[in-house]
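User: Sequence in, structure out. Go.
Assistant: Echoing your sequence, followed by the structure tokens.
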Amino acid sequence: MFAAEEIIKENTREISKPKTAPVLNRVLDFLSSVRFGVVLLCILVALAMVGMLVIQQNVNGFDAYYASLTPAEKTVYGYLKLFDIYHSWYFNLLLLVLSLNIVLASIDRFPSAWSYISRPKLDASRKWLLGQKQNAIVEMHGASEKEIVEKISHVFKSHGLKPIVSEKKNQLFVFGESGKWNRLGAYIVHVALLTLFLGHFVALQTGFDADVRMMPGQTTNEIQMIEFNLDKQERYVVSLPFTINCTDIEQKLIDPKGSIGINNTLDWRTRIEIDDPQYGKTVADVSLNKPFAYRGYRFFQASAITVGSARNMTLEVAPQTGGEPLKLNLARNGSANLADGTKIDYEAFFPDFILNGSQPDTRSAEYNNPAVKLNITTPDGEKKSAYAFGRKMPDNIPVGAPVAGYKWRLTEFEKSPLAHVLSIKYDPFNGAFVAWYLGGFGLIGALMFVFFISHRRIWALIEKTDAGNFQVILGGHTNRNEQGLEDKFEKLKQNLTTN
């Protein structure tokens, strides 16, 4: 007997013992939980802030920043990969897990959100309606049931609520709603976030950074790839599938008489011509706020070689035998002709002219003694070299002596750097465009849609009283902006009570 009782007790324990969910289900529930996703997002934002506060190794000025750190800081930051955090394994892993959380959470919760659109709640009990935060009972006298339905429908429409009339268990309902698509706002945010993450990941994995130095008249099909390793930058040459020809560079200065340094610069502009065997020639103008995109390559203004040069020059050409001097405009790498057939070609510009032995050179990058070297071709075909100085030079100095029957002088010139450096970012799949434009702006739009629009629902239950009149029981619900619904509900109630 006792043995039987023990068996019964044991079976009872087994029956009453709660069953635990399978391990896989528990893991999926954890991965899809909103709390877990919020924690991951906060960590991701924190790491992104670290990437902004700690100068990254591919940013200009990193060398000086790295040198200012203590040996301990260099060791710790380097071990944690804080100098290149966006390429670190844990940052990419975090993006992957957060993306998985967003996908699983969306799959888990989307059916219930979609039900608000596909199967709206058209009816409700009197008790449920009066239990809503916005509720009221309106007495309707001297009107038929049909007239009351028509009036409620008209009032709902006037307040932007689409009315639907239904009947259930001999009870008549009028249901109105607005902003129902806001129930899917969270999933639009999810799509924008996933687009942002995917574009960022693709851009990092498939793209690269490079530099190319551009001087007017220079043609190249090579760029310098940059590989960063803390304070060391390794550069190696890579061929392009097209040729870049620099036709002009221009620097807009705040003070035209000042230096060509960064502090006196409004804009840098580089005009290039791309010669592509597959697509022909393309002309582009790259400036500070106007990058140029071509076949996955994006050209940006990066810096300038601030050795003084000139973009356009005005020369004073005075006949050696006397007579009125002539004004002559000459562009860099350009040429001009005099009336007697003399041809002038630009060769070089020296901001601070000096003779280094017998060769012309510049003492500094500043415009202390500007001069331009010219190639002169006389009408009979003889070729000579001449120098035009900004300062007036004595006739007995060889470099300032008349050449080809003329005295040459540089009167004006437009300041310009020796060369520009273009930064090239290669992104074959336009990951950056997808991330920042579709993902970034899409996320901003989605958040505005979520927070500035709400799903408002109002029900009206029409009941006949014992006295033969009608009561309209109103109830309202919204997923956000309760104050806005309260104002609308009060106006709607007032419209129903007025004849």
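User: And one key feature?
Assistant: The chain has a mean pLDDT of 87.
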